[in-house]
Design goal:
By secondary structure, the protein is of the alpha+beta class. It has two domains: 42-128, Immunoglobulins (Immunoglobulin-like), CATH 2.60.40; 135-163. Helices cover 33% and strands 28% of the residues. The protein contains two helices and eight strands; from the N terminus they run αββββββββα. It has helices at 3-31, 138-162; strands at 42-48, 51-57, 68-73, 79-84, 90-94, 101-106, 112-117, 126-128. The protein has a five-stranded antiparallel beta sheet with strand order 4-3-6-7-8, with no helix packed on it. The radius of gyration is 27 Å and the shape is elongated.
Length: 163
Amino acid sequence: MNKKTYQTNRLLLYPLLQVITLSGIIFLMLLTPTDVHAHKMTLDCRFEGSHLHGEVFYSHNNPARHCSVKCYSLNSNALLASGTTSDEGTFSLQLEHKVPLKVIADDGQGHRASWIWNGNDDANDRTENPKSNVSMEKIPAGLAVIIFSFGIIRFIRKHYHES
């Protein structure tokens, strides 16, 4: 094979490899789950008199130890009580009045759970906020980074082979 044929084949092969690689990466990204619950945090609360008792746990019922727990008024957003979970993931907060409230548990490592009570003693009135999905705004940014990376690689290869 002469040098000219080799260079022509090489020039045709690089764009094809880039297209195949980029197509494979995009295909794998589409297969990746967007809602992962490997360490989903769950918060469960109940009233006993003027005390709010609760339990914070991860998936597979693993207790969330030493998490910050804060109770806010739904009406004024004022902090009503705060505490920390025990080694078993439980907590108890003393409340002066039973008002509509929101309880937020945070482990300080990016896991958060919340629980809302609208003020009625009806069990159906207590709701847990569902975990939000991955923001759709992050997908175009991720694709832009990948395309930019391929552009830099192509630029470097082109200048390296010309010199």
